Amino acid sequence: MFLNNQQKRLKRILIVDDEGSFLHLFEENFFKQVYTRKYKFTYCKNVPTALKQIKNNRPDLILLDIQMSPMRGFDLLNLLKRFRVKIPTIIISAYGDEENRSQAMKLRAYDFFQKPVDFKKLEKSIDDVLEIVREEEELESNYSPFPEDKKNQLVKPPSYIYVSKLIQQLDPKQQLKLVYRLVEETFSFDQIETLICDLPSLLEIANEEHRELRALEQDDLRRKKKGLIPLRLILASDIEVKKRSYTKKKTGEISYYYFIFLRYMDKDNKMKRRVISTKDWQDLKTKNTVLRKIASKEFTKIEYEILQKAIQKLEQKLEQKQVKETSTQENPSPVPPQPPKPLPEPQKKKNKKKTFRLF
To answer: Which of 43, 101, 105, 238 is deepest in the core (most CB within 10 A)?
Structure first.
């Protein structure tokens, strides 16, 4: 009787255990299967290295320990279930209590063995699991629920607007479930594996951004006390320019005002504007933040001319203010002499009536 290609193929079994001597026990007890090229065992000490091994060379079966660091064996099963990677798993652990057994069954582990392992029973279980997998593969290869033209068609992910509208109607627990489901359906197994590898550096970047945000919040509180514009308000608002005309009363000439102002939404979702004054422009942080905001926005030719004139006006007013301050410091205005205060008039003493007592 000839074997088909699937039965001839070498079965790759991945052992995930933090004990280094565990692989030698398997090679000794399964010497015949290894020699006849029925099984091939590979070994990983933890879950992250197991994820890399699954990505590079997907095994037919996983023999998994529970208690490991930095991730437990159940974490690997959760990841496989979440990203719909169907690899049969047998749990081998020293902790064979009911809680671990029920958790393993919930995560669809095929079998559970407690250490020390009975290798004869384990061999039978491995053969049974691989036979079930072979039958499932045959069924899947013979049946396809999709037509031939739609078999490789990708599912379109949901739009951002739809998800944002849906999130507003849910409570925080339901929002977390929704995000969890979207991550599960959007990211592939390769992407989550790279995410786990890059997680320490991503956490460091997030902590650094959080520290910068906290420093910016404290700086804005100090700026509010001084009457200055908070920097976060400048970053969140839109820069606009405006030109207004007015007539001088004495000459009747028409002159113009040039404004740079911020347009933003307040807490009540109302549109508000704030004009940048000379006091604001005098502060270097405000000035640099506004200039960076201006550089990142596109203006029309007319708006750009108004913007240039508004900046010139602010610089002129600032120079005039600085000249006045320096002139007052160099030549302080003399204090006029005050006339001497008149002497107070003497108060007349009131004659008190004398009273006599007999006793």
So the answer is: 43
Task: Name every residue whose Cβ is closer than 8 Å to that of residue 57 and which is 6 or more positions away in sequence.
Answer: 12, 42
Q: What's the Rg (C-alpha) of the chain? A: 40
pLDDT tens digits along 212-260: 778 888 888 888 888 888 888 888 888 888 888 878 777 778 888 888 8
Between CA 311 and CA 309 the distance in angstroms is 5
pLDDT tens digit sequence for 165-188: 666 666 666 666 666 666 666 666
How far lies 18's CA from each of 21, 45, 73, in Å? Answer: 9, 5, 11
Nearest 5°: the CA angle 121, 126, 132 is: 125
Q: Which two tokens stand for residue 40?
A: 């091939």
The pTM score is 0.41
| Average per-residue pLDDT for the chain | 76
Strands of the sheet with 61-64, listed across from one edge: 39-44, 11-16, 61-64, 89-93, 111-114
Q: With H, G, I as helix, E, B as strand and everything else as coil, classify residue 210.
A: helix
At 164, list the tokens.
């944002």
List, in order of start, the domains of the chain with CATH numbers. 9-142 (3.40.50.2300), 231-328 (no CATH)
Hey, CA dihedral for 92, 93, 96, 99, is it positive or negative?
negative
